[in-house]
Structures are given as structure tokens and as C-alpha cells.
Amino acid sequence: MNFGVFGTGIVGTTLATKLVSQGHKVIMGARSATNEKAAEWVKKNGPKASQGTFEDAALNSDILLNCTKGEATLQVLKLAGEYNLDKKILIDVSNPLDFSKGMPPTLTVCNTDSLGEQIQKQYPLTMVVKTLNTMAAPVMTNPRMLPGFHVIFLCGNDANAKEIVGDILITFGWKKEEILDLGDITSSRGTEMLLPLWLRIMGTLKSGAFNFNVVK
Fold first, then answer.
1. Confidence of residue 102 (pLDDT cuts 50, 70, 90)
2. Looking at the domain assignment, is residue 182 inside a domain?
3. Most C-beta atoms within 10 A of its C-beta, which of 28, 62, 80, 178?
């Protein structure tokens, strides 16, 4: 399968590296086709790894992962091109965090709206699935680094898209029963609002090696 990853930070490179290791072709998108971070990632990951612009990544991929900063997400998707996003699954891993005033950051959108919803509204033919945004990058692709049962949240309007994304998560090491489908894309409000709490916990523990669980 062909994947396009928007973003060259730790989340983008972690997910892209995992997908390449599973035998998928992955193109890492950036503002420039010669982005240095993307080039370094390609050099380390062999022939199935490539780089290009956001538009290149969207055009040449079946499934897309948005791993950009929340403040840049809508601009990045505009650069990718609406026609390249139509009828494709977009896994949205971003969070609308504003670090301009330092730590802790604030949410730029919350309560009655979310970044996930804004993406879906702007790109109605794209199947947006929000997931992986409530944990540190290493946990995303190696959930068994943590002991016991813990959950990963998932939401979106298209049931088939969520099923496909769920299957991808299982290949990352998540157990089917750990994938908690919260319903439609409006559930992004809740998962995005977990981030201020997540950051406080990380600050207290001095580590991102933790995750949430739901006990019932």
C-alpha cells in the first residue's frame, strides 16, 4: 500500500518508519521537495521511502497521515490540494496546540469545535479518521512497550475508513479490544482536549512513556 505522511517531525518520522518496515511505500511530504529532514529520513529507510512536497505525497498515496502541527494543518492540506485528498482516508494525528506563550500550551479550538471537524468540513469528500493523537510517538507504533491493557481512541464519520484504520493500528501492535471507537468526527473535541492533561502528566512523570486506560 502507498502511504503519504505530512510532517517531518518525530511523529511523522516514527509512523513513516514503521510503515516502511512493514513493506509499504511511504512518501514524506513537506513544503519543499528537498526538505533536509525528509531527505535524512529517506536515506535511513531504503528504496520504499521517498520524499516530495505535500502535493506529491497526497497525489501518490492511497492513505494519508497528517502529522503536522495543528496550527499549520489547514494550510498544509490546502497545499496538498483538495483534488488529491478527495475520496482518500486521512488519518489525523494533529492537535490544535498553541505554544506561542510557552508551556503549557493552549488549545486554539475546543468545546464546540475541533481541528478534526474543521478538516472534515473543509474537505467533505475526504474520509477523516482521528486517532493516535493522545500519546507519545513511541507508544503509537509500539504499544506493547507499556505493560498491560491500554486504549487508543478513534473517531470519524465513515465506518469503512475506521475499520481500515483499525486494521492498520492492529499491525502496529494494538489489540482489537484496545481500539475504542468513539463515534463520529465530533468526538475529536474530546480527544484533542485530553492533550492539556496529557502534557501535565508528562511534566509530572518526566516521561511520555504512558497512556490512558478506560476501566469499566
1. confident
2. yes
3. 28
What are the tens digits of pLDDT across the range 141-181?
A: 999 999 999 999 999 999 999 999 999 999 999 999 999 99
**73-80 and 115-122 are packed helices; what angle lies between their axes, rounded to 10 degrees?**
20
pTM, full prediction: 0.96
State the residue range of the domain holding 101: 2-205
Q: Which CATH number characterizes residue 46's domain?
A: 3.40.50.720
At residue 85, φ and ψ (nearest 5 deg) are -95, -20
DSSP string, 49-105: EEEEEHHHHHHT-SEEEE-S-GGGHHHHHHHH-HHHHTT-EEEE----EE-TT-SSP
Is residue 28 a part of any domain in this protein?
Answer: yes
In a domain, 212, yes or no: no
Between 7 and 105, where is the model more confident?
A: 7
- Does 214 reside within a domain? no
Q: Which residues of 24-59 are buried (b: 16+ CB within 10 A; e: fewer)?
A: bbbbbbbeeeebeebbebbeebeebbbbbbbbbbbb
